[in-house]
Amino acid sequence: MRIIAQGLTYTYNPKSPFASQALKGVDLTVDEGEFFGIIGHTGSGKTTFVQHLNALIRLTGGFLKVGEYDLSDKKCKFLELRSKVGMVFQYPEYQLFAETVEKDVMFGLKNFCKDMQEEDMKAAVKAALEMVDLDYAEIKDKSPFELSGGQRRRVAIAGVIVTKPEILILDEPAAGLDPLGKTEIMRLLHSIHGKWCKTVIIVSHDMDEIAENCTRAAVFSEGKVVMEDTPAEIFKRADELLALGLDIPVTAKAARLLKERGIEIETDFTCDDFIKKVLALYAAQQDAPRA
C-alpha cells in the first residue's frame, strides 16, 4: 500500500477562537516496503499527519490515498482501512485494559474480523504474540498488569499487528526505554517489517534511531514537510535541522567536530559506518609516509 498525500491541511477547533492549523499543505509519499521515519518538534504536525493515515482524524482538506483507499471519498471503507493500517500510540502499555493478555490482543480481531471463528482468533493471537517474542502458553491467561513494562509494550504491539496490517505506524516506539530496551524494540520492529507488515512508519524525536533504522525520512516543521530524503542526506543538512530546533545523531555531531579540525568523513551516520570510516582514516594516516 503506497501512501500519497498532496496539499493535506487540517485545523483543530475550526471557526472558534481556539482554531489552530496543524497541517498547512503536506506533500508526502511513502512507498510500500519502506521503513520510514517522521521527524519534527512538538507541534510540527507529525502526529496529526499519521492519525490521518487510518482515518482517526478525518480528511478535511487536500488529497490522501492509502493503497486503494481514497480518504476523501465518503464511501471509503474506513473500518477495512483501519484493519490494514495499524497504529501504536506512545506508551501503548498504558492502554491495555482486558482481564487477560489473550483477550486484550483479541480485541482488535473482534472489531475488524467479526466473522472469524473463536479458534481462528486464538490461533491469530498466538501467532501475533510469538511474533513479538512472547510465549503464548505462558502468558495468555495472565493479566497484562502482571507483566513487566517491556512485556506489556510487546503485548500492545501484538494487539495491533494481530490483524496483519500492511502498514504499521508507531509513535515514539522506544520512548522511556533504556539503551538495551531500545535496541531490542527496534530489532523487533525490523523482524515485524520483514515477516509481518510490509511498511513500517516510526514517529521519533530520537535522531540516532532514525539514522540507524530508516530507509527514508521526512522532517515536519510548522505543519509542512521541509525535508524528505534518506537519513544520510537529511543529516548532511545539520545546520538546517539545528535551526529548526531539532537534534542530530551523535555521529553527525562527531562528524561536525572533526570537520572543524579539517577532517571530513563521508558517512551515512549509522554508528557502524561512522566507526568503520574513522578507523579506515586512522589506518591510512598511520600508513602514510612521514616527512
Explained architecture:
The protein is of the alpha/beta class and 291 residues long. Helices cover 41% and strands 21% of the residues. A six-stranded mixed sheet has the order 6-7-8-3-9-10, with helices on both faces. The radius of gyration is 21 Å and the shape is globular. The model has no long low-confidence stretch (mean pLDDT 92).
Helical stretch count?
12
Mean of residue pLDDT?
A: 92
Beta fraction: 15-25%
Largest sheet: 6 strands, mixed
Q: Span between N and C termini?
A: 60 Å
Low-confidence stretches: none
Proportion in helices:
40-55%
Shape: globular
Query: What structural category do the secondary elements indicate?
Result: alpha/beta
| Rg value | 21 Å
State the strand order across the main sheet. 6-7-8-3-9-10
Number of strands: 10
Which H/E pattern describes the elements?
EEEHEEHEHHHHEHEHEEHHHH
Brief synopsis:
This protein has 291 residues and is α/β, with parallel strands linked by helices.
